Amino acid sequence: VVFDSQELACLHEAGHAEAALSAGARVVEMELYRESPRSWGRTRAHRTEEQRQPIALGGFAVEYRLFRAGRLVKQSGEAPTEAEFISYSMDNAIDDRVAFFGKDSAGPDGLWPPDLDRQFMSYAIGYAERSMRFELVERIAHALLAAGKLDEASISSIIAG
Fold first, then answer.
1. What's the rounded Cα separation, in Å, for the pair 118 and 108?
2. Are 120 and 60 in contact (CB under 8 A)?
3. pTM of this prediction?
4. Are 150 and 143 in contact (CB under 8 A)?
5. Cα 66 to Cα 46: distance, rounded to the nearest angstrom
6. pLDDT band for position 36 (50/70/90)?
7. pLDDT at 118
8. How confident is the model at residue 90 (pLDDT cuts 50, 70, 90)?
9. What is the DSSP string of the chain?
């Protein structure tokens, strides 16, 4: 899975969807925006305040699983170093960190305090290693990549298998 690819955008969003479903929220819509140089997506869920943090971790958790499995590569096709992975994935998780903490804690230089980054990554990694249903993530991501947009009925059908 290549950095900035449509496939990675779909997997990232599917991570949010899987986390939302695991937290008991309803995923009502997902959309892939096929843009250059970086595709991106959005996942909308009806959730409670208690479900906000677990859902926000889902995208980074998927990227971590891909990295640890050796499935994530840079544009050159080379595997990223851990530092390259963290830099890329934390940049990719700017909105997710705001959602997780409930506020934007970036300093004037655009960087977040290292302790908050570590906290975000730690919770996401714990979720990725202990609870994430990666086979469901892959099914949702595949469907999103094929369709470009999924509604609640489509997502429910994917979950049902």
1. 19
2. yes
3. 0.96
4. yes
5. 27
6. confident
7. 96
8. very high
9. -BTT-HHHHHHHHHHHHHHHHHTTPEEEEEEEE--SS--EEEEEEE--HHHHHHHHHHHHHHHHHHHHTT--B-TTSPPPPHHHHHHHHHHHTHHHHHHHHTS----TTSPPPHHHHHHHHHHHHHHHHHT--HHHHHHHHHHHHHHSEEEHHHHHHHHH-
* Res. 10: pLDDT tops 90: yes
85 is written with which tokens? 């992975």
Q: Is there a contact between 38 and 4 (Cβ–Cβ < 8 Å)?
A: yes
Q: Which residues contact 114 (CB under 8 A, 6 or more apart)?
A: none
| 78: its two tokens | 């080379």
What distance lies between CA 153 and its chain's CA centroid? 21
CA distance 50 to 30: 21
pLDDT over 90 (residue 161) = no
The C-alpha angle with vertex 48 and arms to 53 and 132, in degrees rounded to 5, equals 45
Residue with tokens 């300093």: 107
